[in-house]
Structures are given as structure tokens and as C-alpha cells.
Amino acid sequence: MMAARTLFEKIWQRHVIVSRGADEALLAVDSHFVAEGSFHAFGALAKDGRRVRKPRQVFGSPDHFVPTLGREQGLAGMGDAESRGLIEYLAHNAREYGFDHFGIDDARQGILHVIGPELGISQPGLMITCGDSHTSTHGAVGAFALGIGASQNKQVLATQCLWQKRPKTMRIGVEGALGPCVTAKDVILAIIAKIGVSGAVGHVIEYAGGVLRAMTMEERMTVCNMSIEAGARSGMVAPDDTTFAYLHGRPYAPQGGHWEEALAYWRTLPSDAGAKFDREVTLDASALEPMVTWGTLPEHAIAVTGSVPDPACASSADERAQWDEAIRYIGLAPGTPLAGIEIDRVFIGSCTNGRIEDLRAAAAVLRGGKAAIRAWVSPGSTTVKRQAEAEGLDRVFREAGCEWRAAGCSSCVAMNGDGVGAGERCASTSNRNFEGRQGKGSRTHLMSPAMAAAAALTGRITDVRKLAS
What we know:
Elements: H1 7-15, E1 16-19, E2 24-28, E3 31-34, H2 39-47, E4 58-60, H3 81-97, E5 100-101, H4 112-119, E6 127-130, E7 144-147, H5 150-159, E8 161-165, E9 168-175, H6 184-195, E10 203-208, H7 210-214, H8 217-225, E11 234-237, H9 241-247, H10 257-266, E12 279-284, E13 291-293, E14 301-303, H11 317-330, E15 345-349, H12 350-353, H13 356-366, E16 374-378, H14 382-390, H15 393-399, E17 403-404, E18 425-428, E19 443-446, H16 449-458, H17 464-468
Helix pairs in contact: 2-5, 6-8, 13-16
């Protein structure tokens, strides 16, 4: 009788081509995503005279460098010649090697980690790779999805295979009931605050429990997206009826009789009863509140009702030094209440929170109000943008005084003109609050879309529950 296996173990074993030692294997890659930042890999491929091994399993779209303003002009509207060249090079490689490409003028263009599930390319049981750390997002459909480096990117393009050391497994169970205005973003920030940015190093996380089962697919994507901020190799959620309903009918999802075949396989994937994980962590959802980061790491997250911690209370000398440096950079004094901290601008978007449900949540807070500070909204994909416009969400944002922009990574990475100025404080729905992440000298406070919308209305970090009451 076969031993009970985890979701990860089932996917790993199905994709092993050959093993090397006890913990390393050459794995077959099902789907590989490339953005304009993949130019190194394509350059190396061309230098070696290699071809893309399986172009039907490669998908590309520009996302990091695309401007979010002036997009009606397409490439002609891009003033940055270097960025324009990268986007043109990606399109050239798509033509040269014959893979599907959703270019700057394509109605399907968007952040790769948004359009993969959106188009039905990301499916349960697949191994998915991309040269970007937040590839873990695709694990929300029950896939093993991981970010890879430039040399590995070339390897996958040339062979559709990848050598990997087998990671350990971690199960994070979230049980109980979420309180008012507590979202998936708050759940994952609370998890990272609990286990730390190195808490899941060397592991694949399977998120489980009643709270995850009750989440929508888009909420699960938010959680899996930030697995990397906990140090994990990847994050995943077992596929269920919510997953299947989400994928059904999407352009790249199985059709007709192939759908029933896929469904039968997908139903075998959830972890078996009694499957063993290398580590297990539990979280009580009923104790959670809306979360905000105070420092320069995602683990520097506390409830909005809390205050900037005192380094004297740190658990070690190393942590004390880290807190001292974070407080110095972020420009706040220990003991400062988070609620009430003045904000200079707001960013709503990214592969963490740029989906239609995120925009609906932000619009619900902003409806009928006026932003007190500069704020902009960048949908995660052109499809999301068009859906939001069909629902009238763009009018809500514009009437509130927010800028309604085109799809892309925007100021999550500040590679595209959407930067935050030195010393400016930004309420952001993105995934990283590192020093300079949104621009040199910028100060980032991570939070949910509803919390960011509340900050836009008041010009301060604000407990959205007080606005909703």
C-alpha cells in the first residue's frame, strides 16, 4: 500500500525524469513564463545556437517595464529607449521561437502572475516556472510554481526541464473566522510576522484549514504570492471545487472531454489523510486584525491598532540592530501608533493585489469620497482593467481623485516611471517594503486594498473598520 503523500509530493514524483542522489532530480516543466526581464536567457540561448525546446509550453508578456501612463500610444509612447528595447526584444523572441506572446497592445497583456491563472494556463498538478520570485502565486491553483534565475531560465527554454533539490514541506493551517475587514492580505502578513522572513526557507508551504477553503481563488493567490516573503520556495493550496469552477471555460483550460479527464486527475491531488509534513504551523484567524508594516521587511507587520516597536524589546541583539536600522530608515519613533501616521501617496495594484476583487474592495471604500493625497490604481492585467471599467470601478476611482492607469507591475518595482520619491511614505498593496523598493529613499507600508483606500481618503494610515462602521 502506498504511503500517504502531500500535494507537493504527488506533483514532484510525477515530474521526476531522473534522480541524482537522495534529494535532487531533473524535473519536467509544464509551463514556463517569460517577461521582458528574460533577455539574459534569450541572449544566452541565441549565443549557443539553441532553440526553445517546446514553444507551445512557453508564454510571454511584458509587465515590469511597461508604462502605466500613455499606453494608448503603445511602444511609440515609451520615452525610455532601454525599456522599449526590452519589450521589443521579447516580442522578437516570441516571433523567432514561436511561443504565445501577449504584447503591450494585446488585450490579454498583464502581470504574468495575474494572467497565468486568468487565462487558464496555470492548472492543478503542473510544474510552473518563471524568472520572477512571485511565481509562487500560481500555486493557488494547486501547482508547484517557483521562481528561477537567469541561467535556469535558459535551461528551461532550451530543454523544458530543470534540476532542483527537493525542498521540505510545511503545512500552515488557518482556522477560525476572519473578522470584519480582515482580508487575505492580512492573513499572509500575519503569517510572515509569526514565522519571519526566513521561517520557511527550504520549504514548500501548503496553506490549509477552514479559512483557506473559504477563500476565493483570487484571495488564495494573494496568500501564495507572498510565500516568498516568508523565505519559502513556493506556496500552494490544494485544488477543490472553488479551483475547478474558477478554471472552467478559461481560454487555455482543457475543453470538452479533456476537461473531464483533467478534473478526474485534479481530484486526486489534495494531500492524503495522514500525510506527513516536515513542519506544521497554525494560525487563529479570529485573533487577526487589519495589518500594516512598520519597517523594511514584510515580517515587520502588526495590527493597525498597534505601535512601532521598541528595539529594546527585541528578542536578540541581531533583531535589535535590525529594528534600529528599520526605524531609522522608515523615519518613525518607537511607540508611534500606526494609525494616524501621515501618508504621501497610495498605490493599489501589483501581482499581490491587482485583481478584480482587490479593485472592488478598494472602490467600496472610496465610493462617494475624495482622496486627500495622490493615489493611483494599476490593474494587474488589461483584462482586469476592462472588467473594472465595465463595472464602473474606474469611475469610482476617478471621482475620488485617484489616477486610473494601465496594467503592469507599476510602482511595486518602480522600473517604469511609477516611483515614490525619497522620504515619501506610500501606502501600498504590493508585496515588499524593502529599502528603496518603490524608489530610492522611499518608505513603504504594506496593507490590503481596503486599508490603502482608507489611507487615500484620510491621508493617514487608518483602521478601515472605523470608516466601515
